[in-house]
Amino acid sequence: MPVTDGHFYEGSSLELQGLTMAYGDIEVLKDVSLTVAPGTTTCIIGPSGSGKSTLLRGVNRLHEPKSGSVRLADDDALALKPDVLRRRIGLVFQHFNLFPDHTALDNVALALRNVKGMSKKEAARVAAARLDEVGLAERADHRPRDLSGGQQQRVAIARALAMDPEVMMFDEATSALDPELVKGVLNLMANLAQRGMTMLVVTHEMGFARKVADQVVFMDEGRVVEAGTPDQIFDHPESPRLRRFLSEVL
Ligand SMILES: Nc1ncnc2c1ncn2[C@@H]1O[C@H](COP(=O)(O)OP(=O)(O)O)[C@@H](O)[C@H]1O
Ligand SMILES: [Mg+2]
């Protein structure tokens, strides 16, 4: 299980204003505004195709927004170099994209050497500490195929944490996992939230959103339909569209 002692994060604020994104001529994100305060967790929920992944891709500039603004702490994220931005905002996907022929330790250490320019020895030291942080100290020498899906996802999270990000984003990080492995990864995510990381989490795990989120954002058809506390969103939904969504997923 993840360690809970010691390490605290200093998450930054993330603020989206009027974000609009398109693929070709088709607008899939329309005038989205949301603020994630430092050290808080926002969960984004909504039906498939509502633009959740596109939003995360826009924040990280994997797909450039058409208009609107993204601010990370005091910086205009759309004016930063994309590789600098991606060091400051970690993104964890459903599929972990680990190097299959490298150990867990090397997967994390390689990122440190490539991105942070660390020496081999320093990268190995930091990578070991990061794996310990996600509860995988004993698995450092295992290759991905010798790890469970949940452990592989925790390696991917350790790799993202190794960049010392100010914000962590998760895109359905547990959707590809066998049911019995989901909890370990969700616990780790909750643990990061408790320790001050700023988190933007796209998830179908309504129990997680209810328990961990400071704010829940419901999206449909590229727009934010409703946003509020878990209590507001899950127990007192206002829009018919959200009520219908909840009746289908809860
Ligand atoms: N690379 C792409 N090219 C064209 N259309 C895309 C692409 N990725 C996503 N879309 C479309 O954009 C819309 C939003 O998709 P997405 O952000 O993946 O939604 P979600 O993550 O909520 O399921 C969908 O209509 C989807 O078909
Ligand atoms: Mg998606």
Automatic annotation (TrEMBL):
It is found in: Cell membrane. Residues 14-246 form the ABC transporter domain. Pfam families: ABC_tran. Keywords: Amino-acid transport, ATP-binding, Cell membrane, Membrane, Nucleotide-binding, Transport. Its main location: membrane. It comes from the Bacteria. Belongs to the ABC transporter superfamily. PANTHER family: AMINO ACID IMPORT ATP-BINDING PROTEIN, GLUTAMATE_ASPARTATE IMPORT ATP-BINDING PROTEIN GLTL. This is Polar amino acid transport system ATP-binding protein. It comes from Agromyces terreus. The lineage of its organism: Bacteria, Bacillati, Actinomycetota, Actinomycetes, Micrococcales.
